[in-house]
Amino acid sequence: MISGVTLCGPVLVLTVALFAQSSSPRLSPDQPRGIAEPSLDPRVESILRGMTLEEKVGQLVQYSAGQPTGPGTGRTDYDDMIARGQIGSLFNVIDPHEINKYQKIAMEKSRLHIPILFGLDVIHGFKTEFPIPLGLASTWDPSIVEKASRVAAMEASADGIRWTFSPMVDIARDARWGRMAEGAGEDPFLGSAMAAAYVRGYQGSHLDAPDSIAACAKHYVGYGAAEAGRDYSSTEISEHTLRQFYLPPFHAAVEAGTASLMSAFNSLNGVPSTANPFTLKQVLRKEWRFRGLVVSDWNSVGELIPHGIAVDGATAARKAFLAGVDMDMVSSLYHDHLQQLVSSGQATPAELDEAVRHVLRVKLALGLFDHPFVDEEAAPKALYHPDSIALAQTAAERSFVLLRNANGPDGRPLLPLATAPLNIAVIGPLGDDSSYPAGAPPGSGPRISLPAALAQRVGEGHVSRFKGVGILDGTDQEIAAAVAGAQKADLAVLALGESSDMSGEAASRAHLGLPGRQQELLEAIVHTGKPVVLILFSGRPLTVPWAFEHVPAVIAAWLPGISGGPALARTLFGEVNPSGKLVVSWPRSVGQEPLYYNALNTGRPSGDVDLTRPPADIASRYVSRYIDEQNTPQFPFGYGGSYTSFTYGTTTISAQRLSAAALNKGLVAAPNAVAAMTAEADITNTGSRPGQEVVQLYIQLRGTSVAEPVRMLKGFRTITLAPGESKKVKFELKPEAFAIWNARNEFAAEPAELKVWISPDSARGSAAEAEIMQ
Ligand code: BGC
User: Fold this and answer.
1) Ligand 1 atom 6: the closest Cα is on which residue?
2) Cβ(222)–Cβ(268) under 8 Å?
3) pTM
4) How far is ligand 1, taken at its centre, from the CA of residue 700, in Å?
5) What Å distances lie between residue 130 and 184, 191, 232, 620, CA to CA?
6) Which of 130, 170, 168 is nearest to 148 (CA)?
């Protein structure tokens, strides 16, 4: 194979070989039985042979049950349509009885008895709510994400739902964009690890197990780069940046066997993602050899008209279909036009068959033909299992990021709280469990509020509760009552931030501070002189610089889910030591957005210039900076505190010189290539408590054909250290770690100067240096 190098140019040949190697649909021990299962194909073909044009189109049609859908259609006559084989999938049906009712029509009344695929947005748990995905990612622990998705799959499948529109694997660099809450943050390496973990958890070891559900990696692609952070806004992403940052988590989901992908709302370089043959055909089908199903986002086929690339429904349907969208979510345009498009030759029968194959393959892989119905009696028993609630608590504890822990009145860090009896005032609109764990879908289940969980430790009567203000409103009297309450207590725990509907879809914000009068409340409570712990609940980082200067202890709790109350109480009292780390750069002010650590250096980096001061001379002015804000984030990507402290020894590496040619040879063998380099460092717990530390490895490459980021995450590991204990943490870096998307958009290693950091976050640590030779 390598002999081809001299003939065709090393980079091209090796790149093609890499795709062939790493993306072919194969059944390996790491890829569970699913859509790639070859034995499905004969069954798919035999069903396909018996289908009429109308029935084929029907498989590509999806509606949201109970809601009139589609532009102007107002359609809700699903019974009749199902009986005629005109619907392939329904979603938003949650009642198992109703699911069986629809399924019975498909299985008994439709000519071919093809089961309906029932979907739902099961985003961070079905009934047992886990922390939002941004919180789950802050654990930096893919095994927790995998277990949480397993629980979600068990609960949802018991209800009859066999398809989730999750994981959202969009890279999010801009906290204004509300959907940052739904993903794993700004980094493609971490995002890829999380994407694969979600898919493994949802789909289990066999997609046809009754408790497995099909995953759907969304929103393909670039949706998170919405201009100005405004949801649904356009995106402009070069092919290089797309391949380097935005595509990898989708590729990881495909490699993990995801059954489906969802095309996004955004236009990408002028071509809407739902009609984009480059991303849907070239990258997804040709390069990655994806064999599963592509569904549009909600009416995103219909939205091709306002986007401006179609002037009528028929054109919108044709463009989406020919670009590679198999299933039309709710617009009804495939139902209305696809038969005619095929009969008139605007789409070929072969193209139609291929799309139907993708749908049938997923249904067969799920075992739906053999087991179409759900056991209605058993459904409720799968919900809220004590182990699931316990896992949700662990996940929440691991998701909290300790942002600040300055000294309290006794001259020691305020947290953890002393176990001695305390009178605690819980103040703020988010102090009750009913408000903060919410997210889609809303659940009930066993919950213990934060005040109740605190009372379990300090005793009833020692915890008082004051709302202070609402999320968006509040009166002087309410603030005064909260201040009086704080004055009577030994400690104020402030529960402030965003309600759950202030992040997620259609929840972009232009201001990232505390909403409403919450900042006023915070300052009034701090001015009482009482020690204050601020718990920030949000689906994004919030710009609260005043708090980071004046409030001794601040925890980012995200939206922590059903067990948020007990998890927080345990954290405050030190029964658990926080170990979460940020997966997004935390801005100082909204004007810094989009803000991300893996940025390019620019031609005029600010270097040693003091950015805390306005520019005073030419040297401090004509650099890449603001005249009124620092460049650095409030807290960098990867940052998170602990009740203990860790020191990092020097990073050492196993080789001072690597060869680009040898790395490229290794790429062909990916992912089984041997490590090209190992890097290690000693980490010591220098504090007095046991703790977990997320150790991170970053690299930088200089001298390459395309400018590379100042740092790129290439490894991470969580270790547990007893006080005084040291561990050597060793990372193996495979050839892939050093390959870049070069000036020709090929994935290959190049000669470069290399730096390697093993560090506690993206901004600290000292680097080992090496060289990549020709
Ligand atoms: C969202 C998707 C979601 C779909 C179905 C859309 O509005 O963008 O993320 O899966 O609705 O509920």
Assistant:
1) 298
2) yes
3) 0.95
4) 37
5) 14, 18, 26, 47
6) 130
The atom number, within ligand 1, closest to the CA of 165 reads 10
Provide CB contacts within 8 A for 305, sequence distance 6+.
Answer: 311, 312, 313, 316
The whole-angstrom separation of Cα 258 and Cα 256 is 6
How many residues would you count in the chain? 774
Is 27 in contact with 38 (CB distance < 8 Å)?
A: yes
In angstroms, what is the span from residue 263 Cα to ligand 1's centroid? 10
What average pLDDT does this structure show over 176-188? 98
Atom 5 of ligand 1: nearest residue by CA position: 298
Q: Give 3-state DSSP helix, strand, coil % of the chain, rounded to 5.
A: 35, 20, 50
Q: For ligand 1, what atom is nearest to the CA of residue 219? A: 9
Q: Is the alpha carbon torsion for 760, 567, 180, 153 positive or negative?
A: positive
CA distance linking residue 749 with residue 657, whole number of Å: 13
Name the CA dihedral angle for 245, 251, 255, 257, rounded to a multiple of 10 degrees: 130
Atom of ligand 1 nearest to the CA of 168: 9
* Residue closest by Cα to atom 7 of ligand 1: 298
pLDDT tens digits for range 256-286: 999 999 999 999 999 999 999 999 999 999 9
Which residue of the set 174, 208, 297, 761 is catalytic? 297
Distances (CA, A) of 200 to 31, 123, 259, 411: 9, 15, 11, 47
297 is catalytic: yes
Q: What is the pLDDT of residues 63-95, one digit of tens each?
A: 998 776 666 566 777 999 999 999 999 999 999
Q: What gap in Å lies between CA 78 and CA 530, rounded to an integer?
A: 61
Q: How far apart are CA 639 and CA 367, in angstroms?
A: 44
Which amino acid type is present at position 431? G
| Residues lining ligand 1, Cβ inside 6 A | 121, 165, 218, 297-298, 505
Q: Which of 89, 297, 330 has most ligand 1 atoms within 8 Å of CB, for mutation?
A: 297
524-527, long-range: CB within 8 Å, 24+ apart, which pairs?
A: 524/479, 524/482, 524/483, 525/427, 525/468, 525/482, 525/483, 525/486, 525/492, 525/494, 526/550, 526/551
Residue 604 identity (one-letter amino acid) = R
Closest by Cα among 186, 21, 94, 69 to 593: 186
Nearest of 652, 662, 702 to residue 682 by alpha carbon: 652
Smallest CA separation from ligand 1 atom 12, residue: 121
**22: its two tokens:** 């790493």
Q: Per-residue b/e over 169-191, b at no fewer than 16 CB within 10 Å?
A: bbbbbbbbbbbbbbbbbbbbbbb
